[in-house]
Amino acid sequence: MLGLKIHTLPQLSRPRMVAALPDMGNVAGIGMDFLVRKLKAKLFAEIYAYWPPAVSYNEGLLKYEQSSYKFHYSPKENLVLFSGEFNPSDPRRLYELCYEVVGMAKKLKVSTLYSIGAALRQPAPTEPRLFGATSTQKNLELLKKEKLNLLAGKGQITGFNGLVLGIAKEKQLDSICILSEIDNPNIIQPKAAKFILDKLLHILQIKPLDTAELEEEEKRKQFMEQQMSYMSGLARKDNQPGIA
C-alpha cells in the first residue's frame, strides 16, 4: 500500500492536471520541475514512495529520509501538477501509483489529465518533433488543430507517463499525452522539454513562461557533447598502431 497524505484539498473549478515522472532524457522530470517552480505551485498532498532503498550516514550518525511524490496546484491557472523523483519499474507499484493519481484527479473533478515525456527516434532531426495521443475523438481533433504529429500505427507508451493515461481512460477521465522526440535516452534533453512546455502552455491557454534557463542548459549539454566527441576522437588516434 502507498501512503497518501493530504495536507489540504484545493478549491478549484474543474481544473486540468499535468502528471508525469522522469523518463528517457529526463524530459518529463525537467518539464514538471520547471512548471512547479515557475508557476509557484503550492504543495497540497504527497504519496510516500519506496525510495531510496537505503539509509544514509554521516560520521556514524544515521539519517533516513523517505522520498515522496508530490501534488501541487496553481489557483491562478486552475492547474494541478503531479511529479516525483523516480518512475517505478515494479508493475504492481506502478499500477498502485497510477490509481492513486487518477483517484486524486477524480476527487478534484479534473476535466482533462495531461502527461508529457520523450519519444525515442534515431536519428532525430535538428528540431525535435512533437507527437500526441489522446483517449477521445474530440481531443484528437484538438491535437490535429495544434499541429501535433499523431502517434501512427501501433505501439506502447511505457512507464507511468503512459499507464496513467490508460487508468484515466478506465475511470472515464479525458487524457492527452504530448511527447517530444529525442535521439539519446541517456543524456538530459532540456530542448525537448522546452518544446513540450511551449506547446502544453499554449493548449492550456497559460501565458508563455521564460524558458531561458532551459536554453542555457541545452547550450551546456551541446558543449559537453562536443567535448566528449573531441576526446573520443583523440582516443581513437592514440590507439592507432605505432611504427617500431
Name some characteristics of this structure:
single chain, Rossmann fold, 11 strands, 37% helix, globular
Mind sketching the topology for me?
Layout: E1 3-6, E2 16-19, H1 27-38, E3 42-48, E4 56-58, E5 61-63, E6 68-74, E7 79-83, H2 91-107, E8 112-120, E9 130-134, H3 137-145, E10 149-150, H4 160-170, E11 174-182, H5 190-203, H6 212-238
Notes on the protein architecture:
The mean pLDDT is 89. The chain has one domain (3-211): PAC-like subunit (Rossmann fold). The chain has helices at 27-38, 91-107, 137-145, 160-170, 190-203, 212-238, and strands at residues 3-6, 16-19, 42-48, 56-58, 61-63, 68-74, 79-83, 112-120, 130-134, 149-150, 174-182. It is of the alpha/beta class and 244 residues long. Strand 4 (56-58) and strand 5 form a beta hairpin. The chain has six helices and eleven strands. Helix 5 (190-203) packs antiparallel against helix 6 (212-238).
Care to give the gist of this entry?
The chain is α/β, with parallel strands linked by helices and 244 residues long. The protein has one domain: PAC-like subunit (Rossmann fold, 3-Layer(aba) Sandwich). 37% of the residues lie in helices and 24% in strands.
